[in-house]
């Protein structure tokens, strides 16, 4: 196996940040935290999407297209990002994406706020 590539992207566990809002770089988030320790992360999806697109090139052999998306417990934030990826790449609606993930990891349980944001993202994508 080749080396490990990692990316840290802040997403609040309570779902009250704007995951699909305007992109915020790591430096911008750190500056916002320095100015206000209660600052909320925003736009995490766009950084995650860029990382996943680089880690999962469509021309790579199927067996070489693997990536681990993880949060503290693997039940809320990471499934939200994986669902968004499935919605974006495979044009699935949010319910289908969550069913697919839940079938593979039954403990998945995103907070309602993340599910609502996924529904909004589905509308942005124009997926029925």
What's the quick description here?
Helix content is 48%, strand content 0%.
Describe the structure.
Belongs to the protein-tyrosine phosphatase family. Non-receptor class dual specificity subfamily. Keywords: Hydrolase, Protein phosphatase. Its EC number is 3.1.3.48. This protein is mainly alpha-helical and 128 residues long. It has a single domain, classed as Alpha-Beta Complex (Protein-Tyrosine Phosphatase, Chain A), CATH 3.90.190.10. It is built from 5 helices and no strands. It has helices at residues 26-35, 44-55, 77-90, 94-104, 112-125. Helix 3 crosses helix 4 and helix 3 runs parallel beside helix 5 (112-125). The longest helix has 14 residues, at 77-90. The protein is globular and about 45 Å long. The termini are far apart. The model has no long low-confidence stretch (mean pLDDT 89).
Please give the structural blueprint.
Blueprint: H1 26-35, H2 44-55, H3 77-90, H4 94-104, H5 112-125
Helix pairs in contact: 3-4, 3-5
Which structural traits does this protein have?
128 residues; mainly alpha; Protein-Tyrosine Phosphatase, Chain A; 5 helices; globular; Dual-sp_phosphatase_cat-dom; Tyr_Pase_dom
